[in-house]
Amino acid sequence: MIESNGLFMKKVLIFGAGGFVGKYLSEEMINHGYVVEGSDMQKTDNILDAVGFFPCNILDTEKVAALIQERQPDYIVNLAAISSVGASWNMPAMTMSVNVVGALNILEAAKKLQKMPEIMFIGSSEEYVPSSSATSEDTELNANNPYGISKMTQEKFAEMYRQRYGMRIYYVRPFNHTGIGQRDSFVLPSFCRQAAEIESSGKPGTIHVGNLEAKRDFSDVRDIVRAYRLILESGNYGTVYNVGSGKAYSLKDILNHIIAFNNQKIDVVVDEDKYRPIDTPLVLCDYHKIKSELGWEPQYSIFDTLKEMYQYYLQQSKKNK
Ligand SMILES: NC(=O)c1ccc[n+]([C@@H]2O[C@H](COP(=O)([O-])OP(=O)(O)OC[C@H]3O[C@@H](n4cnc5c(N)ncnc54)[C@H](O)[C@@H]3O)[C@@H](O)[C@H]2O)c1
Q1: pLDDT of residue 277 exceeding 80
Q2: Dihedrals phi, psi of 178, to nearest 5 degrees
């Protein structure tokens, strides 16, 4: 807790603050009266000026312990991860290290503080078994890829530290989220960037895609970080919340929507090497629990988000000409 002008402000330390979500979560917390400190391997443009930055590899046990001891945060949110399912197939061991051992380093360090911070871990919809209908928190967990397995393992440890040491640990299973700033190795930024570059070239062009039949639940990242704040403020540690839009669209429908922003003729080429080894046909979030308990509902439509992302890439592409 920090005193500023007679007001006591809670301090949040965000690991993985230099990533895509880090910037949005920092903004959300600062706008709601928190002092935000961030850590990541290195400083990136996602670290806001108002965020104190402390470089640290979460696999460095001693450095993580020293950082948490020195900063004495009220809350820790761990966003640091190997965050892509695709990448996790190529580096399963590193995925387990960062996503599980990294979380354990944070838990062990936090456990030693006199006043233990409250911690939020970010799971994923990838923890659930594939389902042909909407996925609620009660759906069985049984991930089918290295990323999902690492998140399930992280969650088991969170549960263990809660029970064994009485730690206040919040756990959330978000579904896909996107927005300006997400790396274009992810599908929606990739579609938006390719379409915008064709538009700015003034000539017809080709978009390369993977499996377009998959139906996914995509949210705007700003809705997701609002949910994280509401969960932290709820005091409801010890329970798990899904966060997602409750709507699933096929990637084909989404791509057609993006192509409609464009004035140039676009050919779509399916690259088999963009297919994942296992690709779940439907991912759809049932978010009734967070809605009924915390009043959270999505405020953004994914189609408005796509328009913003497309416009962003169009401006970038014109700037780079
Ligand atoms: N974006 C999504 O659709 C989505 C969906 C579900 C869950 N999540 C989870 O949300 C969290 C944030 O996602 P994001 O999209 O911002 O991911 P991101 O990849 O943009 O950011 C992750 C950050 O972790 C950092 N990191 C990786 N290894 C590290 C290490 N050894 N030490 C310190 N930092 C390290 C990276 O440098 C990066 O800045 C992740 O846990 C991700 O798995 C994201």
Answers
A1: no
A2: -145, 175
